[in-house]
Amino acid sequence: MDFREHQDRAKKNSRIIWFLYLLLLLLSSFLIGWTLAVGLNLAELYQPGYEQYSFGQKFISSNAYAFDENRIQILIGFSAIAFIVQGLTTVFGFIKKSNGHKVALAFGGSLLTEDTVDSLAQKQALNIVTEQALAASIPTPSLYLIPEQGINAFAAGKSSENAIVAITQGALDNFSRNELSGVIAHEIGHITNQDIKLNIQISAFVFGFTALFFLARFIFYNAAYNRRMDGRAKMVMFAMAAIIGIIGALTVWLGRILQAAMSRQREYLADASAVQFTRYPEGLVQAFEVLEKGGKSSKIENPSAKEYAHAMMFGIGGELFATHPPLKERIARIQNKKTHAN
């Protein structure tokens, strides 16, 4: 496997997806700004004194007002506010998800140390983490054991200095030493490639789009309980709330598609890094084949699993929102074979 070629390809594709993320944020902010600028002016035109005008005339007039060169700063201002609100929500999401130890504990994980290991398998896993961290030239991350029978693993944290690696009991029970080395090297690859920080960023980015739902609810309740507002103006405000809610739903939906696409590229990158660290690609291939041919499950029962699906080593989602490439494709890439998988 030419891991450097695959690393360069995955990084290039990740940059394209980041551009699409920013484009989606800018587009959603503009659409919110347009909805507010046009909607508020349209609501004004439904106050007494404008009864002689049709809806079409009022709508055209409201758009002309919003894009008038002397008043376009209102549209820009609303768009900027929408951008800032989504940005602040994104920052909150980043802070909330940045502690890897808390993520592991949310899965019911227990920290493994030299003093707490109670089996040869746990001791072996701890040794492998130390070995692979040394190969990657990073501080040895903490190791957590997740009490799940599904075969899976993940890395979390915002930097290599405070990163953690977590493996499930199912992974510990079903993988040989070489296979577990490949799996842990894969997670170490996520750390060295700064994917753990990236995972937090893209998850927070999608979380930031949910701010639009709160904005829609605020407009809805503000109109519903405003006794001085004309009934037809209230209908316009309700329509504004509905449009903003739809924009929010679409941006979250598209954001999750981009999140899944980003995750798939970083999985290829981590696979390549695992080969680089272990210098034994068959270990990782054999681990994949345990799930691909052995009929084992990667499913995690914990409620937090869906939120962190993009951080898992093995996917748990459908095709459109699949956070991981097919195992056959990952195996083929490691073995330098071509498949028809996307």
From TrEMBL:
One of its GO terms (cellular component) is plasma membrane. GO terms for molecular function: metal ion binding; metalloendopeptidase activity. InterPro entries: HtpX_protease (IPR050083), Peptidase_M48 (IPR001915). PANTHER family: PROTEASE HTPX. One of its GO terms (biological process) is proteolysis. Its cofactor is Zn(2+). It is a multi-pass membrane protein. This is Peptidase M48. Binds 1 zinc ion per subunit. Keywords: Cell membrane, Hydrolase, Membrane, Metal-binding, Metalloprotease, Protease, Transmembrane, Transmembrane helix, Zinc. Belongs to the peptidase M48 family. The keyword Cell membrane applies. Residues 124-336 form the Peptidase M48 domain. It is found in: Cell membrane. The keyword Zinc applies. Its main location: membrane.
